Amino acid sequence: MARRRRRVRLLLPLALLVLMGFLYFRPLATYFETRGRLAQRQAEVAALRAQKARLERRLARTTSGEALARDARSMGYVRPGEQLFIVKGIDAWRKQHAAANP
């Protein structure tokens, strides 16, 4: 009987430790999962802030009148009174010209 009590005394703390581990497992797993998600979201926020800063710099560059005129010309717009000329075959001319003048 004394041996049985001794065994119970040894197994009771072990059983309590196992029970505590079982009860703490789920909250700890949730905590680490949430911490991982938070780190991922913080990385996304940092990337979005960097993208926003780039876009704001780009916006500041493109809102000048000179930049707007350059963009309009690249889209084929002309100022009133100007005449638009469309030149075709530039690539073929360049190849022919490059072959003639090595």
How do you describe this structure in short?
The protein has three helices and no strands.
Q: How is the main sheet built?
A: none
Low-confidence stretches: none
Order of helices and strands: HHH
> How many beta-strand elements?
0
Radius of gyration: 37 Å
Please tell me the overall pLDDT: 87
- Using the alpha-carbon principal axes, give the shape: rod-shaped
Distance between the termini: 107 Å
Strand content: under 5%
Total domains: 1
SS class? mainly alpha
Number of distinct helices: 3
Helix content: over 70%
Structure description:
The longest helix is centred in the N-terminal third of the chain and has 61 residues, at 2-62. The mean pLDDT is 87. The protein is an all-alpha fold and 102 residues long. The chain is built from 3 helices and no strands. The protein has one domain (2-100). Residues 38-65 form a coiled coil. It comes from Gaiella occulta. Keywords: Coiled coil. This is Septum formation initiator.
Features:
102 residues, mainly alpha, 3 helices, 80% helix, rod-shaped, FtsL/DivIC, coiled coil
Write the layout of secondary structure elements.
Layout: H1 2-62, H2 65-74, H3 90-100
